[in-house]
Amino acid sequence: MKKDPKNQKRTFKAGCQRTWEVITAEPDLAYLELAFPECPTCPHRVQPEGAKPFCTLRLQDAPHPFASLGNLKL
């Protein structure tokens, strides 16, 4: 019997290397509080026009979103 991915605890990592364990099936999450001193310079921080800034949390074992570009032959 296959487990429901929604019921699995997953570890997410921010650009500052902090981790959070969350029960979710989502591949990315947003951290809205930005309470850590390095949040203003975090490489995962997103500041959309007209909206509150946030940090993207990615699955701890996920490759970098641009990792596949390293295989391109130009």
What does this structure look like?
This protein is an all-beta fold and 74 residues long. It has one domain (5-66). It is 0% helix and 30% strand. It has strands spanning 9-13, 19-23, 28-31, 45-46, 54-59. Strands 1, 2, 3, 4 and 5 form a five-stranded antiparallel β-sheet that branches. It starts with 8 loop residues before the first strand and ends in a 15-residue tail after the last strand. The model has no long low-confidence stretch (mean pLDDT 84).
Keywords:
74 residues; five-stranded antiparallel beta sheet; globular; mainly beta; 0% helix
Helix and strand topology:
Blueprint: E1 9-13, E2 19-23, E3 28-31, E4 45-46, E5 54-59
Antiparallel strand pairs: 1-2, 1-5, 3-5, 4-5
